[in-house]
Each structure stands twice: as C-alpha cells, then as structure tokens.
Amino acid sequence: MWDEIAGGLLIGTAAAILWLGIGRISGMTSVLSSVFAWAEAKRRWAYFFLAGLVLAWPFYQVLGYEPVIHITTNQPLLIVAGLLVGFGTYIGNGCTSGHGVCGMGRLSVRSGVATVTFIFAGMITVAVMNFFETSQIVGVQP
C-alpha cells in the first residue's frame, strides 16, 4: 500500500513541477510528441522526462524491489491492444496520464469525461477477458 501511495505522490509531484515550471502537461502523449516534434525548439524537457521514466525501473530494482508483472504472450492480442490504445489516444486527444493526472488536477471537464471513459472501457475489457479465460478453463467455447 505504501509503495502505491509513494508512487502516486511522485507522479503528482512530477506533474506539478512540470506544469508550474514550464507550463507543460506531463501526459505521455505530450512527452512523446515533444520528443519527435522537430519544429519545437525547446524540447530538452521531454528528453529529460523520458530519460527519467527509462531510468526509474533500474533504480527501483537497485532499491531491492521486484514487482510481479503478468502480461500475455499472445502477440496478435498485444498488437491489437497497442493499436487500440494508440487510436484511443488519438481520438481522445491524450492518454490516461494526461487526462487522468493532469487534466483532472486542473478540473478539466473534457479530461473528466475522458477519464470516466477510460475506466469504463477498462472495466468492459477486464470483464470480456475474464469471460474468455473462464470459458477456456471449463472447456466452454464462447
């Protein structure tokens, strides 16, 4: 429980520092688009932000933590999931971190609607995946 609280505090603090410091949203869509936006002259912040994300994992392991991560090995499912996330990010004008952390923190109505949509879509996805997993276990064909 304390790890989750500490993680949330770190995410919120990083988002606040980036917003108050240079007026940028710390959603990953914003960060990645800034990394690849060649026309944007001042994009060093995005490189540092991305480096911090990449270096956080080895630092976490150095501290002795080893979280258990479960992910499917079904490559077609991973490809479809990645495409759906990318498409959803495009039509939603942002991702869960941008809307859920930064937008909700600014009391944005659009981000509130997006966050509720993300949660609802996640609930449906979990229900469908659990249904298929349960059906395969008992031998029932969906």
Walkthrough of the structure:
Residues 138-142 have low confidence and may be disordered. The chain has 2 domains: 1-69; 71-142. The chain has 6 helices and no strands. Helix 5 packs across helix 6. The protein has helices spanning 2-22, 28-35, 44-62, 75-91, 96-105, 109-138. The chain is mainly alpha-helical.
State the end-to-end CA separation. 37 Å
Shape: globular
Order of helical and strand elements: HHHHHH
Number of domains: 2
Number of DSSP helices? 6
List the helices and strands and how they pair.
Blueprint: H1 2-22, H2 28-35, H3 44-62, H4 75-91, H5 96-105, H6 109-138
Tag the structure with descriptive keywords.
globular, 2 domains, 6 helices, mainly alpha, 142 residues
Summarize the structure.
With 142 residues, the protein is mainly α. The chain has six helices and no strands.
